[in-house]
Write a structure and sequence with these properties.
Distance between the termini: 27 Å
Order of helices and strands: HEHEHHEHEHHHHHHHEHHE
Number of strands: 6
CATH topology of the largest domain: Rossmann fold
Largest sheet: 6 strands, mixed
Number of helices: 14
Strand order of the largest sheet: 3-2-1-4-5-6
CATH superfamily of the largest domain: Vaccinia Virus protein VP39
CATH class of the largest domain: Alpha Beta
Helix content: 25-40%
Number of domains: 2
């Protein structure tokens, strides 16, 4: 089945490699291994064996099966754990500092293109959406959650204006077992509002983010990167969703001391701590030529920054679930 799936095309590959600026003898972490595009290119860019070591994280077992050849390389280690657990996972291997970390946030092409994974509304399959292939599925959520909880997920994680109408219809018509069933209901409820965009797009995106706690994982992953990067280390994050990009932008602005000035009653936290990152580079978006080659790149944003010598900030627990 995997052989029939279209290959994943790394988004803004050249721009990501430029931001990472890898040099021979350095240690690199690919926090989102996926099909291995960034990790393979990173190794090739410094002559394959030029890196001291490369670590690839992914919670999806399919990613590890796809990259089995990489795992046999002398200077590569693939780790079947979420990137939120990078500090602990690398620490178990005696690694406490690295030179560069890349994130490619969200669902991969290989996950979308395999109907049996249940990520896509374009091909009927089980209503699953689990990246780790463990834990509660999207079907579990829509078939048991309250109407209010479903509406909140669709609205806050998918920017879906028809969230309450969709949630009401889901509760009235459930149970759902297939992606096609749910997509048909959403189309019936809200109709076609945006030419060229399936009405189920926002809802499926929201459910996927919720099922995989993608925003919570992202928060933890960024904090882990801050702990692991040595002074001068480079961070590159590619995101595809406005909620993800807002989190990355806010994290780098805060950690670099670039936040707008606070009031005298509530000064910004960054004013009391040394910046752990230099001022972030300007956000980069894919070129028209890349979008023409790979339409899935259209919504991508790359943000990058360089680690300073200041200590990592204390971890902050953020409220709200759904996403990473």
């Amino acid at each position: 089945m995997m052989a029939a799936i279209a290959p994943h095309t790394p988004v803004m590959l050249a721009e990501v490699l430029t931001a990472l600026a890898l040099r021979p003898g350095e240690t690199y972490v690919d926090a989102t291994l996926g099909a291995g595009g960034y990790l393979r290119a990173a190794r090739a860019g410094v002559g394959g064996a030029g890196l001291a070591h490369a670590y690839g994280f992914d919670r999806d077992p399919a990613a590890h099966a796809l990259n089995a050849d990489l795992d046999s390389a002398a200077n590569v280690t693939l780790i079947h754990r979420p990137f939120a657990e990078m500090v602990a996972a690398l620490g178990e291997r005696g690694v406490t500092a690295v030179d560069a970390i890349a994130f490619d946030i969200g669902v991969s092409s290989m996950q979308l293109d395999e109907a049996a994974r249940g990520f896509s509304f374009q091909a009927d399959g089980p209503l699953d959406m689990r990246m780790s292939q463990e834990g509660p599925s999207a079907a579990d959520f829509v078939n048991t959650a309250s109407e209010e909880a479903i509406a909140d997920v669709l609205y806050h994680l998918g920017d879906e204006r028809g969230a309450r109408r969709i949630a009401r219809a889901i509760v009235a018509d459930r149970p759902f077992a297939r992606t096609g069933e749910l997509a048909a209901l959403i189309r019936r409820v809200i109709g076609t509002r945006e030419p060229g965009k399936d009405p189920a797009t926002r809802s499926f995106q929201a459910l996927r983010i919720h099922v995989n706690d993608e925003l919570g994982q992202l928060d933890a992953g960024l904090a882990a990167a801050e702990q692991l990067l040595r002074p001068g280390g480079r961070l590159a994050v590619v995101s595809f969703h406005s909620a993800e990009d807002r989190r990355v932008k806010a994290f780098l602005r805060e950690r670099s001391g670039s936040e707008p000035a606070g009031s005298r009653h509530l000064p910004p936290q960054s004013a009391t701590r040394a910046p752990s990152f230099a001022k972030p580079a300007k956000a980069v978006r894919p070129s028209a030529a890349e979008i023409a080659r790979n339409p899935r790149a259209r919504s991508a944003t790359l943000r990058s920054a360089v680690r300073t010598s200041a200590p990592a900030w204390p971890a902050v627990v953020t409220a709200g679930g759904g996403g990473a």
